[in-house]
């Protein structure tokens, strides 16, 4: 693996020749792991989706981007537009690290509308000669041609007393005729915190204080916050670094989760239930939400993890975004369902009824590397169910389900090339209800598994060889009857209405 010096990581697009960039593009394009219907970088590293919005009939989806290689270097925003959240048009860099306040990275932020116009609030990082970071919260406005004009000065400079320089990712929201921004922060005792600011005119921001939660000792830094009301509840999303082992969550370092409760914004206090992970797969972090044209709350996440080396790093690119999901709260539970427009990707339909048991490891009558698969569990007398995808003689991505404990696990240890380090060998979650359905999206190098109509989601990158394309079902003991519905997916599929 290449090691990158600080100088190399802080090169901008202007520091490299078009020939160098073209060579990198060609190298990336020849990767065997390129996705076919997920947003992925043309070169370099993608992370945190930023500035998601629906504005005047168009969706805008940007992400954090270091163009020159698969490392966290000088960050840009790369922007896409879309009419349907399924087909995306790359628009190139949106916010560039080209001012004194964001000279060391245009970090994440969010989009909002003010007087009918589209604005972005984001974090600019500047480092001095001693490499000390100064965070600024910046504003930018989109003009009628889609270009970005930055405001000349930050609207929030530095961090308030009692907090470190790790202040970032403003998520702007409107409540009771005011605009608020919630930011990820760290206090001087190295505890993760969320800070709230308010403005009446978008330029003058008043620091209101820290959002009081019941998670005082939970991680050393919180980032990528999001707040919204959903089906009569207040929901707070955030990511926590170095959270420590905790039951079935299993992840020590980076957790992306939510709490549901009531936010008393005057008192700054958020009364909430348990912190839950949003996604139980291996690769999910830094999501952001927005409201779509029908009023749904839609979430897109980063299908990647910090501090992890991926098999594509040496090819000069890393990561992709998850598929968009609609969030709802039903009977107190968060549901996440793939957006229905994804049906536009379907090319053909195959269905089969089948059964599996201990002795007959059923090879399903179809295979593939880019597909949507719905497995309905019709009648289940088995103790443990196994579904293997992207399988071959040598490789297999294994989903297992224990009927008694209702634990569902994903094991990618034999799925092909592996991200490193391996922090957890399998990812497990306990379902609320017995398993009745798996709704799975497989792309060249990823799998997203929706269980029981959105009760749980597991998203992971997998790096199998192209020949590993089988689908199998079996049990530990007892028999299970299954219905399989499978669609080949392609972003070139005929678009129906
Ligand atoms: C999430 C994050 C954000 C930050 C961005 C920088 O992984 O650390 O907090 O804005 O990435 O690229």
UniProtKB/TrEMBL annotation:
Signal peptide extent: none
Keyword terms of this UniProt record: Carbohydrate metabolism, Cytoplasm, Glycosidase, Hydrolase
Keyword presence, Nuclease: no
Top-level division of the source organism's lineage: Bacteria
All residue ranges annotated as the Glycosyl hydrolase family 32 N-terminal domain in the record: 38-338
GO molecular function terms listed in the Swiss-Prot or TrEMBL record: beta-fructofuranosidase activity
Pathway where it operates: Glycan biosynthesis; sucrose metabolism
Record SUPFAM superfamilies: Arabinanase/levansucrase/invertase, Concanavalin A-like lectins/glucanases
Localization: Cytoplasm
Domain Glycosyl hydrolase family 32 C-terminal: 342-481
Catalytic activity: Hydrolysis of terminal non-reducing beta-D-fructofuranoside residues in beta-D-fructofuranosides
Protein function: Enables the bacterium to metabolize sucrose as a sole carbon source.
Family: Belongs to the glycosyl hydrolase 32 family.
Name of the molecule in the record: Sucrose-6-phosphate hydrolase
